[in-house]
Amino acid sequence: MSEKLKICAIDDEQVILDSIVKLCGAEGWLVDTALDAKVGLHKLDTSTYDLIICDIMMPGIDGFEFLEQLRIKEIGTPVIITTGFSTLENAVKSLYRGAVDFLPKPFTFDELISIVGRGLKYSQIQRQVAKETLSSDAIDELIHYIPCPPKYKRLGYATWTLLEDDGSLKIGLTDLFFRTIGTLQQINLHKAEDEIFQGNMCAQIMTEDAFIHNILAPVSGRIIKRNEEILNNYAIIEKDPYFRGWVYSIVPANLDYETKYLIPCSSDRL
Amino acid sequence: MKVKPMLKKIVFKLIFAVGISITIIIGIFSYVSVQSQNKTLLAETERHTYQQSETIRSSTKFGMLLNEREHVHEIINAVGRQNSFKEIRIFNKEGEIIYSSNPDHIGIMVDKNAEACYTCHETDEPLEKLSIPDRSRIFASDSGRVLGTINPIYNEPACYRAPCHAHSSEQVVLGVLDVTVSLNPIDDRMANSKIRMLLFTLIVILAISSVLLYFVRIWVDKPVHKLVDATKSVASGNLNYTIEMNSSDELGALARSFNNMTKKLAEARLQLFQSDKMASLGRLAAGVAHEINNPLTGILTYSSFLLKRTKNYPEFQEDLSVIVRETKRSREIVKGLLDFARQSIPKKNKANINDIIDRAISIVDNQLSINHINLEKVFDENLPEITVDANQMQQVIINLIVNAIHASDKNGGAITVRTNLISLAPWGITQVKSALCTNGHNLMDQTVKIKGMPSIRVQANADGKEGFINLDPVYGKNRNLHGVKLKDKSEVDISCPQCNVSLLHKSKKCPECGGPVYFFEVPGKGRFEGCAIKGGKWQYWEAIEKEGKKEYVEIVVSDAGCGIPQENMSKIFEPFFTTKGQKGTGLGLAVIWGIIDNHNGRITVESEVAKGTAFTIRLPIEKEL
Questions:
Q1: Can you tell me the distance from the alpha carbon of A63 to that of B231, in angstroms, rounded to the nearest whole number?
Q2: pLDDT at residue B577 above 80?
Q3: Number of domains in chain B
Q4: Tens digits of residue pLDDT in B216-255
């Protein structure tokens, strides 16, 4: 740890900023704060951060517009969106617009730390990739993560879905996601016949560093099968997350509508 | 002020029209009849007068021949005294009045142009012969109309051979006997008859008017009044108003169609109202969630942080974990509010309903004992576990029990909570929740609901008419809504409203009536078939029938309280309907309905005022795959 990781928190509520400063500070991260998105954007102009935490409902520029501004300014800093109006729609929408994660308010210490930890890890990986692409070193050692195959679609960076020939959908986790968390300790899954909803939690992963990671479902539907193999052998999902390591097979409920929030993985290879 | 609107009433317009026609009819009739009566009377009078004149002529002839003037005077005076005669005169050839019943006129010379002479003397050569009808004339005098009859006295051998030698044999006409009769009696009769006709007309108009008035009152006025009252009432917002009218005439039909319209309006308004309420509730929930979640974040982050930091201080751990737990509970409540506003998703897990009910009862225990209410549990101990959101189900049971407590007497009462395992045939229970045409178009209509459930919308063509039918989503119930009026028993051509692909079976016939069969696909549940004859009841859903009887967990919460009046029964599951005034939000049963619906279950209510209420919930037991 040569240098402390820096986070920028943007929220119009002082108490939220204070708690983020305090909780993240306890983990050894530095937090800069801004009471609105304008101030936040200004700060981004002058200094660089590893991660941004941004509220949706703020006076002036709201969270979605903030994401848009970052895209225009070509600032690649990952953003975690948080809001008190934590509906599935908001979660899915922010992930589609470029946020890496969604943190519904109110959150506990553990929830905040696990999600910020993931975000920071993601940030580091992306930075590493960018650096090495520039300095074109020996290619074999450059693979930090395996991107998901071109036919797949993803919600955020963590989950993917694939339309099978029979009309069912496979759901799984990305390799990049596993790179952002610690070693797997336990996976909790829903049962067959359960309904899952896009943007809602569909699985929980506990890691050895005692964090609980909530996985958001990429699409809604009824689970027809879950992959029992991965429950018996976690190595499968870690080693082959796109094929043998799928999680659920589902019958989609509203695919036409929900597809518009999914990002085609083919776009990642440009 | 009041006369004008009165005259504008239909009944007066009718009376006006009828009055005019009666007047015209009777007018023409009386004119013709008076005219002919007049003619007859005149002819009669004419004939009579002529006869009289002949009688006078013949009775005076002898006197004339003997030249006994006194005798002739005597006869003329005697006859002339009769009332009907105005005057009897005899002129000689020169126009001098020789005899007259009016002695003053004797000796007066009459001009040839006078009315009595004019007929013969109008030409230069005076007529010597005059036909009988031409001998009489009618003229006006100072004392009314007068009929005059002239009777020429012709020369005869006896005249010029008479000893007086007053006349020579060359003369043709010796003089004229002129009898005038007053027409006043006739005219009076005619006038009387006219007055009678007029009176008769008036009486007829009056009689017909009152009959019209009476029946128009009964047949038109009263129903129209009812309709006007009804429209006013509806206009002022009372959509529950129905017109009581049994008549089968056009106004009865209007009243029935009006009732139908208000019913439809009421339903539409209710739906609009409800969605409006839901929308405002959604906004409220969003605002509340946003506002409350921020302070909750403060509490939850700090308390969970403290909990982490005080691992070595067990005395703090317990208290802090209470704060964290309760804050998390608040988080769930706020989320529940948001979920309700968005009719959101239950978090289902396997659970035993009996346990859930037990937990619910322990929460309301206090309230039960305060109100001296005895709660009896009749549990079926062999209930299988079912997949439910335990929190939501608990909320359902608590709400039902609290409602039962409120309905019960202040000084005690009894509430029974019963659970049962029942099995029911799918017919009349199973609900179609999604439906597709053969091209995969969605047929579900979320806007038109039948008994609160989204219906299936299809295009219908029959009897040359075209429209939509909303099919009842409950298998076997057939409470379809027809957007187009079809004759009973007519064959309906059913197709997809989006792509017009026919939904009629090519080969299959209804096993009950032999008519055509419609079908649609239920994703994952096979094909749903039904009789396409209007009024046909046959339906068949193979996949569901094959599953056979389905098992349900039945929960009955009953009380012996005040009951629900019949008029409220349809409204109790509506959001914001409350009988508790300011104390209730009116959301309880609406939330329950939503929760049970989300669990694919059904909730029904039976109630009798002053006897009690029983809510029955049936939750399907999903079979393990």
A1: 52
A2: no
A3: 4
A4: 888 888 888 888 888 898 888 887 888 888 888 888 888 8
Q: Do B307 and A109 touch (CB under 8 A)?
A: yes
Same domain, B156 and B35: yes
Model confidence pLDDT, tens digit, residues A29-56: 999 999 989 999 999 988 889 999 999 8
The answer to whether the beta carbons of residues B137 and B148 sit under 8 Å apart is yes
| Mean pLDDT rounded to a whole number for chain B | 81
CA gap A116, A30 in Å, rounded: 12
Q: Range of B334's domain?
A: 250-341
Is residue A84 within 8 angstroms of chain B, CB to CB? yes
**Residues of chain A contacting residue B336, judged by C-beta atoms under 8 Å apart:** none
Residue in A109, A193, A195 closest to B301 by CB: A109
Do B67 and B146 belong together in one domain?
yes
CA dihedral sign of residues B320, B322, B325, B328 = negative
Query: Residues of B near A (CB-CB distance < 8 A)?
Result: 286, 289-302, 304-305, 307-309, 324, 327-328, 331, 335, 338, 342, 344-345, 348, 387, 524, 622, 625
Has residue B133 been placed in a domain?
Answer: yes
Of B294, B314, B341, the one marking the end of a domain is B341
CB B585 within 8 A of CB B576: yes
Residues A86, B335: C-beta atoms closer than 8 Å: yes
Identify the residue among B291, B296, B301, B436 best suited for mutation to test binding to A, counting A beta carbons within 10 A and taking the highest: B301
Question: Are residues B15 and B209 in contact, defined by beta-carbon separation less than 8 angstroms?
Answer: yes
Largest Cα separation within chain B, whole Å, is 184
Contact (CB<8Å) A86/B622:
no
SS3 label, residue B283? helix
Q: Encode burial over B60-74: b for 16+ CB neighbours within 10 A, e otherwise.
A: beebbbeeeeeebbe
Q: Give the residue with greater pLDDT, B480 vs B123.
A: B480
What is the tens place of the pLDDT at every residue in B128-185? Answer: 676 766 777 888 877 788 888 888 888 888 778 777 767 777 777 888 888 888 888 8
Options 3.40.50.2300, 2.30.30.100, 3.40.50.880, 3.30.565.40; CATH for A6-131 is: 3.40.50.2300
| Residue at B314 is within a domain | yes
Considering the domain architecture, whether residues B496 and B451 belong to the same structural domain is answered as: yes
Same domain, B38 and B173: yes
Residues B283 and B315 in one domain: yes
Distance, in Å, from the CA atom of B582 to the CA atom of B575, rounded to the nearest integer, reads 15
Query: Are residue B67 and residue B85 in the same domain, yes or no?
Result: yes
Q: Answer whether A144 touches B (CB < 8 Å).
A: no
CATH number corresponding to A153-269: 2.40.50.100
Residue A236, min C-alpha distance to chain B (Å): 25
Q: What are phi and psi of B513, to 5 degrees?
A: -125, -5
Q: What residues of chain A lie within 8 A of the CB of B622, using their CB?
A: 193
What does the block give as tokens for B34?
A: 């008076």
Residue B230 belongs to some domain of the structure: no
Q: Give the integer Cα–Cα distance in Å for A231 and A188.
A: 9
B452 and B534 part of one domain: yes
For residue B285, give the chain A residue with the closest CA: A85
Stretch B455-478: mean pLDDT, rounded?
84
Is B259 contained in some domain?
yes
Query: Cα(A6)–Cα(B344) distance, rounded to whole angstroms?
Result: 37
Both B420 and B451 in a single domain?
Answer: no
The verdict on A19 touching B (C-beta cutoff 8 Å) is yes
Boundary (domain end) residue, out of B495, B514, B544: B544
Each residue's pLDDT expressed in tens, for chain A with a length of 270 residues: 447 899 999 998 899 999 999 999 999 999 999 998 999 999 998 888 999 999 988 888 889 999 999 989 888 899 999 988 777 778 888 888 889 999 988 999 989 999 999 999 999 888 888 777 766 554 544 567 888 888 889 988 889 999 888 888 999 999 889 888 888 888 999 888 778 888 888 999 999 888 889 899 999 888 888 998 888 888 888 888 888 889 999 988 777 778 888 888 887 654
From chain B, pick out residues whose CB is under 8 angstroms from the CB of A13. 294, 297
Where exactly are the structural domains of chain A?
6-131, 153-269
